[in-house]
Specification:
- By secondary structure, the chain is α/β, with parallel strands linked by helices.
- It is built from six helices and six strands, in the order βαββαβααβαβα.
- It has a six-stranded mixed β-sheet, sandwiched between helices.
- A hairpin with a 2-residue loop joins strand 2 (47-56) and strand 3 (59-68).
- The chain binds guanosine-5'-triphosphate (GTP) and magnesium ion (MG).
- The site of guanosine-5'-triphosphate has 23 residues, from helix 1.
Length: 179
């Protein structure tokens, strides 16, 4: 039987970030934890791990962010990284329609490797509004279809970054407290 989580701060929060290469997973993680943003792209090899704390519902939570590589060739390497995931951010780039289409592919991977994990859909790079290829309504429609929540962020400006992680955590708190 699964333990009932009365105090969400008592166990570290393993959170996975998934999505195509270049959508901004590493930048979102870095923005949240070290308030840093780099223009220069360096693809993640396999996976990067960042740890930090975040206050949610009055609790200081210990976060362990697993920032997975979006590159297809790391698919096999990624498989064991999902073990113990408590919640996930499925990220696409609002200026890249292909990355939006691929959300369903990433959800399949999450469902295969961490079937219990809740998730939210994150449309990143909203600071590049003039290059937008995916509307907010389309993001919301997809989230509704997948029975979850959608949020738009900018890892560059920090817009909604903390909120996106909190949304993902709150989904898991809700789920863990009713099971
Ligand atoms: N304008 C803008 N650029 C961003 C934003 N987030 C990320 N970028 C840029 O997009 C590029 C890719 O960002 P990363 O965070 O490295 O992408 P990733 O999803 O981790 O990519 P992989 O490691 O290959 O899976 C970098 O050049 C970032 O500077 C954002 O919110 N706004
Ligand atoms: Mg990366």
């Amino acid at each position: 039987m699964k333990p009932k989580i009365m105090f969400p701060g008592s166990l570290p929060w393993k959170i996975c970030l998934l999505g195509d290469g270049f959508v901004g997973k590493t930048c979102l993680s870095r923005k949240l934890i070290i308030e840093d943003f780099k223009e220069h792209y360096e693809k993640t090899i396999g996976c990067d791990i960042l740890t930090g704390n975040l206050k949610v519902n009055g609790f200081s939570l210990k976060l362990v962010l697993w920032d997975l590589s979006g590159q297809e060739r790391f698919k096999e390497v990624r498989a064991p990284f999902y073990l113990g995931t408590r919640t996930a951010l499925l990220v696409f780039d609002i200026t890249c329609r292909g990355s939006f289409f691929d959300i369903k592919h990433w959800l399949r991977e999450l469902r295969n490797k961490a079937p219990e994990s809740p998730f939210v859909i994150v449309g990143n790079k909203v600071d590049r509004e003039e290059e937008r290829e995916v509307s907010k309504e389309e993001g919301e429609e997809l989230a509704k279809h997948l029975r979850t929540t959608h949020i738009e962020t900018s890892a560059k400006t920090g817009y909604n970054v903390e909120k996106a992680f909190k949304m993902a955590i709150k989904k898991a708190i809700k789920k863990e407290s009713i099971h």
